[in-house]
Design brief:
It is a single chain. The chain is an alpha+beta fold. It has eight helices and eleven strands. It folds into three domains: 131 residues, no CATH class; 61 residues, no CATH class; 83 residues, no CATH class. β8 and β9 form a beta hairpin. The longest helix has 17 residues.
Amino acid sequence: MKKFLYIMLIIFLFLSGCNKSSNNPDEEVSFDSIPNDEKVLIMINQAIDDYNNNLINEKEKEWNTTISPLPIEIDSIPNINSLKELKDIKIKNRITNAVFDGLYELGDYSMIFEIFNYGTSYWLNGVTSFIVDLDTIELNNPDYKEIKNTLDSLMSEDIEVLAWLYGVNVDLGAESNEYPGFYKVISIGPYKYKSIQDLKDKAETIFTTDFLATYYQVAFENEDPIYKEIEGELYCSISESDIYDGLPYDTSRIIATKETENEILIDLVVSFGEDVDSTVQRIVLIKTENGLRFNNVY
């Protein structure tokens, strides 16, 4: 307990500006001067406190990074008093360049800490992730049938629609005489769209309009757009863009869901063929007047 209080005191001093000059240099606490295991303990408890104080969104903006969200079924994370409370990470074929990593058991879940450099900010120097005991997930849980159906429907064409907006996988015909480099659209995927609005209408059955705004700017609104309407016909320029393939989310293995006023949070895992990854993934569905939509690429 005394060691934990000592560590908490160091954290407090850093947050209070302990690097400022002191009348008594012997009383000054320097992060660089303490042992590495104590640095790690400080950093880990800093990350835990950020989760417990709901600061993850703020930290993502502060450090321009993505941080694994706290699993829906975990309310809070106990602070640790010693690194002995962590276990070695035993993942087959795992490769890491971390100066420290450890696994913290939290019931059916485990939290993984990976620190790549010692520093006063955890998120500048480390990452976290959560894994779940796969045996605790009910396959095709009937409680999540409706959510599963929604995810399956949205994910059936989500990546394809974004590809179409960038002119990928579009069947093209003759080149325009008036606008060289633009070709008449024969079909977009299985569809015979005749206008930009047709393509927008399709995209908005999957994504929110806020999310699509950036794609629309590139596809339709820039000085050099991907699509043009010429004499009532839809034309498209040849694209060499690459589109993110997305993760193979396993909607048959939904762990938990949480509904708020504006969205539905979904925790699940991904599967690569017969191999199921135990890392907890988060998908968010946004409530709109036209139904549930994605506000991100999954």
